[in-house]
Amino acid sequence: MVVAKKVAKRSVDRNYMRRVLRELFRKQQMQIAALDLVIRVMKPFNHQDFVQLEQEFTELLFRLKRATARGAVKQSEPHHD
Questions:
Q1: How far is CA 57 from the centre of its chain?
Q2: Which residue, among 54, 67, 65, has the nearest Cα to 27 in the 3D structure?
Q3: How many of the other CB atoms lie within 10 Å of CB of 32?
Q4: What is the pLDDT of residues 7-44, one digit of tens each?
Q5: Does residue 32 contact residue 61 with C-beta atoms inside 8 Å?
Q6: Contacts of 61 (CB under 8 A, 6+ apart)
Q7: 53, 40, 36, 37: which is closest to 2 by C-alpha?
Q8: DSSP secondary-structure letter at 77?
Q9: What is the pLDDT at residue 55?
Q10: Is there a contact between 24 and 54 (Cβ–Cβ < 8 Å)?
Q11: DSSP strand E in 3-80: where?
């Protein structure tokens, strides 16, 4: 998880963002395939943005799940040379 100083100058704000993201990840952890993920925050958020952030995070995990399922199907298909 990466929250750069460019996104949030104060360490208190960066740590808050990390805590929120960790909690969102923890809630969804059972639905995520065994993958290594890198989460990079691109814009700051605060308490008022929590609902929107949670929706975006859920949507991203759904898209990731769908993409990994599609990739697993392609890998399991026989390869003809």
A1: 6
A2: 54
A3: 13
A4: 888 899 989 999 999 998 888 887 776 777 788 888 88
A5: yes
A6: 28, 31, 32
A7: 40
A8: S
A9: 92
A10: yes
A11: none
